[in-house]
Request: fold
Amino acid sequence: MKKPLYATDLAMTAGDEAIVVRSTGSWYQIKDQNGVTYDARIRGKFRLHGKTLTNPVAVGDLVLFEIENENENTALIKKILPRQNYVVRQSPRKKHQLHLLASNIDQAILVITIREPNLKQGVIDRFLLMTEPHDIPAIIIFNKKDIYNEGDLNLYEYLADIYNGIGYPTYLISSLDSEDALRVENILLGKTTLISGQSGVGKSTFINAMYPDLDLRTTELSESSGKGQHTTTFATMYSLEHNTRIIDTPGFKSLSFNNLEPMDVAHNFREFFELSDNCRFNNCMHRDEPGCAIVQGMETEVISELRYANYLQILDEIEDQNYWERHADL
Reply:
Protein backbone atom coordinates (compact mmCIF):
# COMPACT_ATOMS: atom_id res chain seq x y z
CA MET A 1 0.00 0.00 0.00
CA LYS A 2 1.37 3.42 -0.99
CA LYS A 3 2.08 6.00 1.67
CA PRO A 4 -0.27 9.01 1.65
CA LEU A 5 1.17 11.85 -0.41
CA TYR A 6 0.42 14.29 2.36
CA ALA A 7 1.28 14.26 6.04
CA THR A 8 -0.26 16.40 8.78
CA ASP A 9 -0.14 16.46 12.54
CA LEU A 10 -3.76 17.57 12.80
CA ALA A 11 -5.97 15.30 14.87
CA MET A 12 -7.82 12.74 12.76
CA THR A 13 -11.18 14.34 13.48
CA ALA A 14 -14.19 13.25 11.45
CA GLY A 15 -16.43 15.77 9.75
CA ASP A 16 -18.30 16.62 6.55
CA GLU A 17 -16.41 16.36 3.27
CA ALA A 18 -15.73 19.28 0.92
CA ILE A 19 -13.45 20.29 -1.93
CA VAL A 20 -11.17 23.33 -1.79
CA VAL A 21 -12.09 25.68 -4.66
CA ARG A 22 -10.05 28.78 -3.79
CA SER A 23 -6.89 29.50 -1.85
CA THR A 24 -5.88 32.95 -0.59
CA GLY A 25 -3.06 31.76 1.66
CA SER A 26 -4.75 32.39 4.99
CA TRP A 27 -8.39 31.58 4.15
CA TYR A 28 -9.77 28.91 1.86
CA GLN A 29 -13.09 28.63 0.09
CA ILE A 30 -14.54 25.13 0.29
CA LYS A 31 -17.65 23.62 -1.29
CA ASP A 32 -19.47 20.74 0.36
CA GLN A 33 -21.27 17.86 -1.34
CA ASN A 34 -24.51 19.88 -1.42
CA GLY A 35 -22.84 22.78 -3.22
CA VAL A 36 -22.75 25.03 -0.14
CA THR A 37 -19.68 27.25 0.01
CA TYR A 38 -17.85 28.18 3.22
CA ASP A 39 -14.90 30.42 4.05
CA ALA A 40 -12.59 28.10 5.95
CA ARG A 41 -9.36 28.26 7.90
CA ILE A 42 -7.06 25.65 9.37
CA ARG A 43 -5.62 24.80 12.72
CA GLY A 44 -2.37 22.92 13.20
CA LYS A 45 0.81 22.54 11.16
CA PHE A 46 1.03 21.02 7.73
CA ARG A 47 4.19 19.78 6.07
CA LEU A 48 4.99 18.01 2.82
CA HIS A 49 7.87 15.50 2.93
CA GLY A 50 9.47 17.49 5.77
CA LYS A 51 9.18 20.82 3.93
CA THR A 52 7.35 23.89 5.15
CA LEU A 53 4.48 25.06 2.93
CA THR A 54 3.47 28.65 2.22
CA ASN A 55 -0.11 27.46 1.58
CA PRO A 56 -0.77 24.23 3.47
CA VAL A 57 -4.07 23.52 1.68
CA ALA A 58 -4.28 23.35 -2.11
CA VAL A 59 -7.12 23.97 -4.52
CA GLY A 60 -8.43 20.52 -5.41
CA ASP A 61 -7.86 19.08 -1.94
CA LEU A 62 -10.63 16.97 -0.45
CA VAL A 63 -11.01 17.91 3.21
CA LEU A 64 -13.09 17.11 6.27
CA PHE A 65 -14.48 20.18 8.00
CA GLU A 66 -16.82 21.35 10.69
CA ILE A 67 -18.94 24.51 10.66
CA GLU A 68 -17.50 27.23 12.87
CA ASN A 69 -20.19 29.91 12.51
CA GLU A 70 -23.41 29.17 10.62
CA ASN A 71 -24.47 32.82 10.42
CA GLU A 72 -21.17 33.87 8.81
CA ASN A 73 -20.76 30.64 6.80
CA THR A 74 -17.30 29.94 8.20
CA ALA A 75 -15.71 26.56 8.84
CA LEU A 76 -12.63 24.84 10.21
CA ILE A 77 -10.67 22.37 8.08
CA LYS A 78 -9.98 19.41 10.33
CA LYS A 79 -8.28 16.96 7.99
CA ILE A 80 -6.92 16.73 4.46
CA LEU A 81 -7.72 13.46 2.73
CA PRO A 82 -4.87 11.64 0.93
CA ARG A 83 -3.96 13.25 -2.36
CA GLN A 84 -3.95 11.43 -5.68
CA ASN A 85 -1.22 13.84 -6.84
CA TYR A 86 -0.16 17.46 -6.52
CA VAL A 87 1.83 20.16 -8.29
CA VAL A 88 4.38 22.01 -6.17
CA ARG A 89 7.03 24.63 -6.81
CA GLN A 90 9.57 26.60 -4.82
CA SER A 91 8.00 29.68 -3.27
CA PRO A 92 9.02 32.77 -5.26
CA ARG A 93 9.28 34.84 -2.06
CA LYS A 94 10.51 32.31 0.53
CA LYS A 95 13.15 30.17 -1.14
CA HIS A 96 13.24 27.56 1.64
CA GLN A 97 9.52 26.88 1.42
CA LEU A 98 7.25 25.16 -1.09
CA HIS A 99 4.12 26.53 -2.73
CA LEU A 100 1.30 24.13 -3.62
CA LEU A 101 -0.42 25.02 -6.88
CA ALA A 102 -3.13 22.33 -6.95
CA SER A 103 -3.93 18.70 -6.15
CA ASN A 104 -5.97 15.79 -7.46
CA ILE A 105 -5.77 16.84 -11.10
CA ASP A 106 -6.15 14.77 -14.26
CA GLN A 107 -3.89 16.87 -16.46
CA ALA A 108 -1.97 20.15 -16.61
CA ILE A 109 -1.81 22.76 -19.36
CA LEU A 110 1.05 25.20 -19.81
CA VAL A 111 -0.01 28.26 -21.80
CA ILE A 112 2.93 30.03 -23.44
CA THR A 113 3.54 32.37 -26.36
CA ILE A 114 6.55 33.00 -28.56
CA ARG A 115 6.05 36.77 -28.57
CA GLU A 116 4.37 39.43 -26.44
CA PRO A 117 6.03 38.51 -24.13
CA ASN A 118 8.94 36.72 -25.75
CA LEU A 119 9.24 33.06 -24.84
CA LYS A 120 11.57 32.63 -21.87
CA GLN A 121 14.21 29.98 -22.44
CA GLY A 122 13.67 26.85 -20.38
CA VAL A 123 10.14 27.58 -19.11
CA ILE A 124 8.66 24.47 -20.74
CA ASP A 125 11.14 22.07 -19.19
CA ARG A 126 10.83 23.73 -15.78
CA PHE A 127 7.05 23.31 -15.88
CA LEU A 128 7.37 19.66 -16.90
CA LEU A 129 9.66 19.13 -13.92
CA MET A 130 6.67 19.94 -11.70
CA THR A 131 4.25 17.51 -13.38
CA GLU A 132 6.50 14.61 -14.38
CA PRO A 133 7.34 13.35 -10.83
CA HIS A 134 3.64 12.57 -10.27
CA ASP A 135 2.94 11.22 -13.78
CA ILE A 136 0.52 14.06 -14.48
CA PRO A 137 -0.14 14.34 -18.24
CA ALA A 138 1.02 17.73 -19.50
CA ILE A 139 -0.11 19.66 -22.59
CA ILE A 140 1.66 22.68 -24.08
CA ILE A 141 -0.50 25.41 -25.63
CA PHE A 142 1.22 28.03 -27.79
CA ASN A 143 -1.11 31.04 -27.73
CA LYS A 144 -1.31 34.23 -29.87
CA LYS A 145 -0.57 32.58 -33.21
CA ASP A 146 -2.36 35.52 -34.85
CA ILE A 147 0.69 37.75 -34.16
CA TYR A 148 3.42 35.24 -35.10
CA ASN A 149 5.74 35.98 -38.00
CA GLU A 150 7.45 33.37 -40.15
CA GLY A 151 10.35 33.03 -37.73
CA ASP A 152 7.96 32.49 -34.82
CA LEU A 153 6.11 29.78 -36.72
CA ASN A 154 9.41 28.05 -37.54
CA LEU A 155 10.34 28.14 -33.84
CA TYR A 156 6.96 26.65 -32.95
CA GLU A 157 7.50 23.80 -35.43
CA TYR A 158 10.95 23.15 -33.95
CA LEU A 159 9.62 23.03 -30.37
CA ALA A 160 6.52 21.04 -31.30
CA ASP A 161 8.73 18.43 -32.94
CA ILE A 162 10.78 18.07 -29.73
CA TYR A 163 7.90 17.84 -27.28
CA ASN A 164 5.47 15.84 -29.40
CA GLY A 165 8.33 13.41 -29.96
CA ILE A 166 8.67 12.66 -26.23
CA GLY A 167 4.95 12.45 -25.54
CA TYR A 168 3.85 15.98 -24.62
CA PRO A 169 1.08 17.17 -27.00
CA THR A 170 1.46 20.72 -28.33
CA TYR A 171 -1.18 22.99 -29.86
CA LEU A 172 -0.85 26.25 -31.78
CA ILE A 173 -3.86 28.47 -31.15
CA SER A 174 -5.26 31.96 -31.01
CA SER A 175 -7.68 32.86 -28.24
CA LEU A 176 -9.46 34.97 -30.90
CA ASP A 177 -10.23 31.89 -33.00
CA SER A 178 -13.46 30.14 -31.95
CA GLU A 179 -12.44 26.89 -33.68
CA ASP A 180 -9.19 26.82 -31.69
CA ALA A 181 -11.12 27.42 -28.48
CA LEU A 182 -13.48 24.54 -29.24
CA ARG A 183 -10.55 22.24 -30.07
CA VAL A 184 -8.94 22.86 -26.67
CA GLU A 185 -12.27 22.78 -24.83
CA ASN A 186 -12.71 19.19 -26.02
CA ILE A 187 -9.38 18.29 -24.37
CA LEU A 188 -10.70 19.56 -21.03
CA LEU A 189 -14.06 17.79 -21.17
CA GLY A 190 -14.81 15.62 -18.13
CA LYS A 191 -11.44 16.26 -16.47
CA THR A 192 -9.90 18.40 -13.74
CA THR A 193 -7.22 20.51 -15.42
CA LEU A 194 -4.59 22.81 -13.95
CA ILE A 195 -3.97 25.79 -16.26
CA SER A 196 -0.71 27.66 -15.71
CA GLY A 197 1.56 30.05 -17.54
CA GLN A 198 3.86 33.04 -17.34
CA SER A 199 2.36 36.44 -16.72
CA GLY A 200 1.09 38.04 -19.93
CA VAL A 201 0.77 34.95 -22.14
CA GLY A 202 -3.00 35.42 -22.45
CA LYS A 203 -4.04 32.66 -20.07
CA SER A 204 -7.18 34.44 -18.84
CA THR A 205 -8.14 35.40 -22.39
CA PHE A 206 -7.59 31.77 -23.41
CA ILE A 207 -9.95 30.55 -20.65
CA ASN A 208 -12.55 33.23 -21.46
CA ALA A 209 -12.53 32.14 -25.11
CA MET A 210 -13.69 28.68 -24.07
CA TYR A 211 -15.92 29.71 -21.15
CA PRO A 212 -17.07 33.33 -21.67
CA ASP A 213 -19.48 33.14 -18.72
CA LEU A 214 -16.49 33.05 -16.36
CA ASP A 215 -15.46 36.54 -17.54
CA LEU A 216 -11.97 36.36 -16.01
CA ARG A 217 -10.13 39.66 -15.68
CA THR A 218 -7.48 40.33 -18.31
CA THR A 219 -4.86 43.02 -18.78
CA GLU A 220 -2.44 44.26 -21.41
CA LEU A 221 1.34 43.96 -21.30
CA SER A 222 3.15 46.65 -19.36
CA GLU A 223 4.10 49.40 -21.80
CA SER A 224 7.30 50.19 -19.90
CA SER A 225 8.71 46.67 -19.61
CA GLY A 226 6.88 44.70 -22.30
CA LYS A 227 6.25 42.03 -19.67
CA GLY A 228 3.04 40.49 -18.47
CA GLN A 229 1.23 41.62 -15.36
CA HIS A 230 -0.52 39.31 -12.90
CA THR A 231 -4.29 39.18 -13.45
CA THR A 232 -5.08 36.07 -11.39
CA THR A 233 -4.29 36.72 -7.73
CA PHE A 234 -5.26 33.40 -6.18
CA ALA A 235 -5.65 29.83 -7.43
CA THR A 236 -9.33 29.16 -8.15
CA MET A 237 -11.30 26.11 -9.30
CA TYR A 238 -14.25 26.57 -11.66
CA SER A 239 -16.80 23.79 -12.03
CA LEU A 240 -18.31 23.58 -15.51
CA GLU A 241 -20.71 21.29 -17.36
CA HIS A 242 -20.08 17.57 -17.98
CA ASN A 243 -17.99 17.08 -14.83
CA THR A 244 -15.33 19.46 -16.16
CA ARG A 245 -13.21 21.50 -13.75
CA ILE A 246 -10.41 23.94 -14.42
CA ILE A 247 -7.98 25.38 -11.89
CA ASP A 248 -6.74 28.82 -12.86
CA THR A 249 -3.44 29.75 -11.18
CA PRO A 250 -1.54 33.06 -10.87
CA GLY A 251 0.93 33.81 -13.64
CA PHE A 252 4.56 33.15 -12.74
CA LYS A 253 7.79 34.92 -13.62
CA SER A 254 10.19 32.06 -12.93
CA LEU A 255 10.25 28.49 -11.61
CA SER A 256 12.87 27.15 -9.20
CA PHE A 257 13.23 23.90 -7.27
CA ASN A 258 14.36 23.55 -3.67
CA ASN A 259 12.53 20.23 -3.33
CA LEU A 260 14.62 18.31 -5.85
CA GLU A 261 18.02 16.67 -5.74
CA PRO A 262 20.15 16.49 -8.91
CA MET A 263 19.22 12.83 -9.46
CA ASP A 264 15.51 13.77 -9.28
CA VAL A 265 16.09 16.02 -12.28
CA ALA A 266 17.83 13.24 -14.21
CA HIS A 267 14.97 10.83 -13.49
CA ASN A 268 12.26 13.28 -14.58
CA PHE A 269 13.58 14.23 -17.99
CA ARG A 270 11.63 11.29 -19.33
CA GLU A 271 13.64 10.49 -22.46
CA PHE A 272 16.90 10.75 -20.46
CA PHE A 273 15.56 8.27 -17.91
CA GLU A 274 14.49 5.79 -20.59
CA LEU A 275 17.90 5.92 -22.24
CA SER A 276 19.90 5.92 -19.00
CA ASP A 277 19.82 2.11 -18.76
CA ASN A 278 22.44 2.22 -21.51
CA CYS A 279 24.80 4.45 -19.52
CA ARG A 280 27.99 2.78 -18.27
CA PHE A 281 27.38 3.91 -14.68
CA ASN A 282 24.13 3.49 -12.73
CA ASN A 283 24.55 6.90 -11.07
CA CYS A 284 25.43 8.73 -14.29
CA MET A 285 24.45 12.41 -14.17
CA HIS A 286 24.87 12.75 -17.96
CA ARG A 287 27.60 15.38 -17.89
CA ASP A 288 31.11 14.25 -18.73
CA GLU A 289 30.96 10.65 -17.50
CA PRO A 290 32.44 8.10 -19.92
CA GLY A 291 29.93 5.89 -21.68
CA CYS A 292 26.99 8.29 -21.13
CA ALA A 293 24.08 7.27 -23.37
CA ILE A 294 22.51 10.73 -23.14
CA VAL A 295 25.57 12.53 -24.51
CA GLN A 296 25.85 9.87 -27.22
CA GLY A 297 22.13 10.34 -27.91
CA MET A 298 22.72 14.02 -28.62
CA GLU A 299 25.37 13.15 -31.16
CA THR A 300 22.86 10.95 -33.00
CA GLU A 301 20.03 13.52 -32.49
CA VAL A 302 17.99 11.10 -30.38
CA ILE A 303 18.28 13.63 -27.53
CA SER A 304 17.41 17.30 -28.06
CA GLU A 305 20.34 19.70 -27.55
CA LEU A 306 17.86 22.27 -26.24
CA ARG A 307 16.47 19.91 -23.60
CA TYR A 308 20.00 18.90 -22.63
CA ALA A 309 21.11 22.53 -22.21
CA ASN A 310 18.06 23.23 -20.02
CA TYR A 311 18.80 20.10 -18.00
CA LEU A 312 22.36 21.24 -17.28
CA GLN A 313 21.20 24.72 -16.28
CA ILE A 314 18.64 23.34 -13.80
CA LEU A 315 21.27 21.01 -12.32
CA ASP A 316 23.66 23.94 -11.85
CA GLU A 317 20.98 26.01 -10.11
CA ILE A 318 20.07 23.20 -7.72
CA GLU A 319 23.70 22.51 -6.88
CA ASP A 320 24.32 26.22 -6.32
CA GLN A 321 21.93 25.87 -3.41
CA ASN A 322 24.08 23.69 -1.18
CA TYR A 323 22.55 20.76 0.70
CA TRP A 324 21.85 22.73 3.87
CA GLU A 325 20.13 25.49 1.94
CA ARG A 326 17.86 22.94 0.28
CA HIS A 327 17.14 21.31 3.63
CA ALA A 328 17.10 24.38 5.85
CA ASP A 329 14.10 23.24 7.88
CA LEU A 330 15.16 19.64 8.58
User: Anything to note?
Assistant: Residues 1-13, 221-232 have pLDDT under 50 and may be disordered.
